[in-house]
Amino acid sequence: MDQLRELIVGRPRIVYRVRDEDVPVLSVRDGGGSSAGETSSKKWRSALKVTGLKTWVVQPSRGKVCVFLKVETDAGIHGWGEAYALTGREHALERLVRDLGAYLIDRDPFAIKHFTHTIWRDVSIKRGGFDFYCAVSGLEIALWDVVGKALKAPVYNLLGGPCRGPIRIYGQPSGEGSLADRARNTVERGYRALKFDPFPGPWQAIVEREVEDTAAERVRTVREAVGPNVEILIEVHRRLAPMHAVRVAQAIEQYKPMWFEEPTPAENLEATAYVRRKINIPVVAGEALYTKHDFRNCFEKGAADIINPDVCNVGGILELKEVGAMAEAYTVAVAPHGNNSTTVGLAASLHAAAVMPNFLIMEYPMSWEETANQIARNPLKVVDGHIALTDEPGLGIELDEAALERFPYRGGRERKLPSPADEHP
User: Fold this and answer.
1) Which of 41, 43, 164, 193 could pair with 170 as two cysteines, CB 3.0-4.6 Å apart?
2) Is 91 labeled as catalytic in the residue annotation?
3) Contacts from 369-373 at CB under 8 Å and sequence distance 24+?
């Protein structure tokens, strides 16, 4: 049986019962107690201090390039993080992670909220931006991993405790063959929901009728391939002008899609709200919105039935939870984005999703699964379209540094830019 001891703190007398081995995690600095009416000089801090930061830019043989990081402490406890990376920005993002992470050295890893706020307020001077929030998200996730390990608790238990058991996920068409074949492959692996982008060509706002017709035909193909009991989720990637988005949504409504994701540019939430009012399919927004301030505009404009923030760019685990709480007040569901947040980001999303009463479903990056199984010592497992919550402390996932080194950055995947003659209409 674990030995317990009592810690007596200040006046009035407060007693905490804790395990002996847990006592060093929290300590009290600066002086003795205080009588009633006096201001105590005691200041709480953890017994830990951040001592180092490592980063990796990982490029698998297939799938996106990822940026992972590891925060180290003087107690030997470490935390893993992941920052959302985009083509052409991988090394710049890694450098930004290092530069912002330098501000963590000698700081208390328990002071997570204070760090993310002050790095925005006092270093970024209240100027955010995509890359800044990606870097901060990765660092924030790693700090939660440290804290959970220090307290010997899963992160979700530090956020209010789970609201559900295994987390429902969706995949993408997978494997080889036609679109119908790949959709069936995913269903045969136990998934009951899958997402795909049915639109051909570049992400243009103004498109020809052929693009609309092709998209509708592909939705029909997938519905017929998977049958009526599998959810199909339609990805639009923020591409269309409202007139096209409305026409396509009306054409595919008969195939009963679960949602219509980001039909119009994220910079124009008024357009997204207009589309939502005109169609009978739930509208998703949020993958390209960052922090609760962007989501406030989304909610106030009535632009979404469902939001899909990404833990690796929205600001981290706590920011995702806070955005979810805002959504709850607007009766908006939360479906965390995950195709660009792999392994560590996936684990972080699970912890945030677990504590949300308004959680709906979460994305699983199937194209990264093979690599995840190689770089993680204890990779997350999908069973019947769900991932179980871990009982392990922290995020519950550990990466293998030697395995990370086996996937060095090789220059990324350059996108081919069209010439003016390639543009249509």
Assistant:
1) 193
2) no
3) 370/60, 370/62, 370/63, 371/58, 371/60, 371/61, 371/62, 371/63, 371/342, 371/407, 372/342, 372/343, 372/346
Bridge partners (DSSP) of residue 18 are 5
Q: How far apart are CA 422 and CA 418, in angstroms?
A: 6
Is the residue at 424 inside a domain?
no
pLDDT digits 0-9 by tens, 100-136: 999 999 999 999 999 999 999 999 999 999 999 999 9
Q: What is the mean pLDDT of the chain?
A: 91
- CB environment 40-65: b (16+ within 10 A), e (fewer): eeeeeebebebeebebbbbbbeebbb
Domain containing residue 95: CATH number = 3.30.390.10
Marked catalytic residue, from 78, 91, 117, 337: 337
Say yes or no: 142 and 279 in one domain. Answer: no
Domains held by the chain: number: 3
Catalytic residue among 237, 244, 351, 386: 237
Within-domain flag for 414: no
Any domain includes 220: yes
Residues 85, 11 share a domain? no
Task: State the DSSP string of 278-308.
Answer: H-SS-EEE-TT--HHHHHHHHHHTT--SEE-
Indicate if 239 and 269 belong to the same structural domain. yes
